[in-house]
């Protein structure tokens, strides 16, 4: 895997905290993330509790990571509980979770807890990199298989889409594609502040609490294909 950078991104690499209770998994993920110049593995943790302690120490030195990549199923404090606490204590840190088909309830709980990306544990290296980059930009990344599962079960008023303005619908589609507010602003030729207003309007009208939930609804309602 060759070094790659994201056009237009700052020179500083995206700092990542890896959280998994299997050392071999952490080593594997670190190995292929090290092949990208725009991503830096800042630290590792073997449990949710260790991750929270590490984040507290990093925050004290002004060195919080940009993204936490965390396994949902771990001994002790699992990824679900850790995700909610990370988002609450460190709102600037984005959380991408690793899951499997057998962790349906945990996926929903992590979604409610504020996770902004969902990957299957057998995700390709390029998918993990894409999810980390999207999270760092403030966007959303949903593994297509996870998205299909979530679209079958997430609760949101089916008629709510009719209340969205044309601009709100356009913003919703771009959110579901993983675009950040700035990228949406550039594409729609509006200000980033206006984008925030549109996204807030989408969440309010659909009775949702996060961009990730909005992305799931967009997929469920056929506003874009589940597969890329």
Summarize the structure in words:
This protein is α/β, with parallel strands linked by helices and 228 residues long. It folds into two domains: 14-136, Rossmann fold (3-Layer(aba) Sandwich); 158-220, Winged helix-like DNA-binding domain superfamily/Winged helix DNA-binding domain (Arc Repressor Mutant, subunit A), CATH 1.10.10. It is 48% helix and 13% strand. The chain has ten helices and six strands; from the N terminus they run βαβαβαβαβαβααααα. The protein has helices at 23-33, 48-60, 79-89, 104-113, 125-136, 144-151, 166-176, 181-188, 192-206, 211-220; strands spanning 14-19, 39-45, 67-71, 94-99, 117-120, 141-142. A six-stranded parallel beta sheet has the order 2-1-3-4-5-6, with helices on both faces. Strand 4, helix 4 (104-113) and strand 5 form a beta-alpha-beta unit. Helix 6 (144-151) packs across helix 10 (211-220). The longest helix is centred in the C-terminal third of the chain and has 15 residues, at 192-206. The protein is globular, with a radius of gyration of 17 Å.
Set down the secondary structure blueprint.
Blueprint: E1 14-19, H1 23-33, E2 39-45, H2 48-60, E3 67-71, H3 79-89, E4 94-99, H4 104-113, E5 117-120, H5 125-136, E6 141-142, H6 144-151, H7 166-176, H8 181-188, H9 192-206, H10 211-220
Parallel strand pairs: 1-2, 1-3, 3-4, 4-5, 5-6
Helix pairs in contact: 2-3, 3-4, 6-10, 7-9, 7-10, 8-9
The global form is globular
CATH topology of the largest domain: Rossmann fold
Provide mean pLDDT, rounded: 85
Our measurement of the CA-to-CA distance between the termini, rounded to an integer number of angstroms, reads 22 Å
